[in-house]
């Protein structure tokens, strides 16, 4: 028996450009398998699609290898962070405190 086909979107935003594509996959396809089938690796060979974090509509999917994609969902491929946001805030606060101490 042939599984029904559903349409989903896959999106990736690199530093210099972004790609949004519609992909047809068999019903029951996992999030990771859908991304691998999308062909986005051809456009961004530097991506490690087997391990990169994935999300659906802005929410990280904890286990994309087992989460089944639903029709109409948008899978987002996330880039690694260049700097930890908590560390950046901590450094900014320390710099502000240092500047305030110098002005007293």
Characterization of this structure:
It is a single chain. The chain has 104 residues and is of the alpha+beta class. The protein has a single domain (5-103), classed as Ubiquitin-like (UB roll). Helices cover 29% and strands 26% of the residues. The chain has helices spanning 31-37, 40-43, 85-103, and strands spanning 5-13, 18-26, 54-56, 59-60, 74-77. Strand 1 (5-13) and strand 2 (18-26) form a beta hairpin. The longest helix has 19 residues, at 85-103. The chain starts with a strand and ends with a helix.
CATH topology category name: Ubiquitin-like (UB roll)
Name the CATH class: Alpha Beta
Number of spatially distinct domains? 1
Any idea what the radius of gyration is?
A: 19 Å
The portion of residues assigned to helices is 25-40%
Which oligomerization state do the chains in this entry correspond to?
single chain
CATH architecture level-2 label: Roll
- Widest sheet: strand order? 2-1-5-3-4
One letter per element, helices H and strands E, the order comes to EEHHEEEH
Number of helices: 3
Beta-strand percentage range: 25-35%
Mean pLDDT: 90
């Amino acid at each position: 028996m042939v599984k029904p086909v559903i349409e989903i979107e896959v999106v990736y935003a690199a530093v210099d450009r972004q790609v949004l594509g519609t992909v047809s996959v068999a019903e029951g396809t996992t999030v990771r398998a859908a991304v691998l089938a999308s062909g986005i690796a051809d456009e961004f060979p530097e991506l490690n699609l087997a391990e990169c974090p994935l999300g659906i509509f802005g929410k990280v999917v904890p286990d994309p290898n087992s989460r089944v994609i639903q029709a109409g969902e948008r899978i987002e491929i996330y880039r690694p962070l260049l700097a930890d946001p908590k560390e950046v805030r901590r450094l900014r606060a320390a710099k502000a405190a240092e500047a305030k101490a110098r002005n007293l």
